[in-house]
């Protein structure tokens, strides 16, 4: 039984108020794999061009990320995104997008991935995400889907169709409002859960994340940081920590999802400390445990009722 | 030994996207007193005009709010504020401000208040807040101060002088940035604590609140609500719950302040459910306990380190 991750592997060029990166390795699938592989082995589905460095693929393989489902289009170029963050680090302008290999991406699920128990659909064209679900002969125990406002603008019907097939949806606060047409996040969550997902995670960046299920709600804070150096991939890393913990523990209860969200938040807090995936490559078990302890300190309180 | 509260008692006229109030009872001191009196008796310092309803004063007296320090200027009018909230409920426009009795307010601390152990300075002219500290013959065990951006704009030096004399400062996130000149709240907190206060609480509205002390930080979420009906007084109510709990338990440790912040958040979550002080007048011990249980559910998680 295994965790299958679907998501882009890409080149990014990033500008923040703190600096500017070269063309570095990025992509939702990349961040998810780097993060989730701290917790469990990963079977990756993606596509890259002939220009994608072999050593990057080798680095993932050495972390038990199975790349059988990653197509390498020798004569094409890898997806490229370039963006500039504003001072608040929450908003950004896209400077350049070159779809390249993503333009006609048709994911193929290898036979060896058919034991998929947990499926993480990183942000991608909703029809591509759906195609992976449809290729699996047995429905996974848990399907988690990330998406973004872009698909709400150009492919809402398609997006809703994929959303109706998943168990957990991940969106940020403005996306939750856009998707539901409700301003109150509590009302937005109720409306979105009617679209299919039994669980909804609303990410609020530096303000933490909310997990909704039925009439229950759980809140995970973000760790207050001196500096957010580069927020790129923080949401993907969050997703990787969430699904990584769930796949490791094989427990899809609401209680375990709370822990998974704290782990996702801890991993995201590392991600933003350096450009791209740099910080994720440096950290190990001891770092993760240390940061999880900080989260316990951050929210732990005693209450003696009045 | 006692809790002394300083703050305005006022008339408010409020417009929100959900409706419009008549001229209703408001003022920082009013909210703090209504809230803190759930936890302990209160000695109030304020000023009202002859137009302030006697039944409002009687209602506070019946909750063990001592009004000996409330000046009644028979021939003058009570402070009046009118404002309109925007859709996000975080920003608002002031439509009208009539200082009236507040214009020349000189607080006088009655002899019977000299046993003050805990002092809550509600948002007011910084020099007026300071005058109360200076009139106390024995320094209270804990001085908590609320303030706002308005004083940073017109009386920064004066404000900093008062800030240097208190133990706990309460500001919101944009005020913390304005006061410190730092964008990162972690850096802002460090800078503000160098101005005097050993503890800093940064309120983030619907995004919760942070408590800083030395190199420690604690985060209290806001309860996700279906609707925020009227945010007026939420910050004052938060302060009232915070100081009320501390005065009740007489424990000024960091650990107990964490609990106090959760209680402040719970009380604020009630405040915003109806116009003005209406909801605060309705709730009792059982309601408070119920909401505190919701906060425990909201942030409680089990962690088994990786």
Automatic annotation (TrEMBL), chains A, B:
GO MF annotations, alphabetized: kinase activity
Carbohydrate kinase PfkB domain mapped to chain residues: 3-278
Recorded superkingdom: Bacteria
Keywords, ordered alphabetically: Kinase, Transferase
Cited PROSITE patterns: PFKB_KINASES_2
A Pfam entry, by short name: PfkB
GO cellular component, one term: cytosol
InterPro entries, per the entry: Carboh/pur_kinase_PfkB_CS, PfkB_dom, Ribokinase-like
Alphabetical list of PANTHER family matching this protein: RIBOKINASE, SUGAR KINASE
Protein name: Sugar or nucleoside kinase, ribokinase family
Organism of provenance: Sediminibacterium ginsengisoli
Lineage start: Bacteria, Pseudomonadati, Bacteroidota, Chitinophagia, Chitinophagales
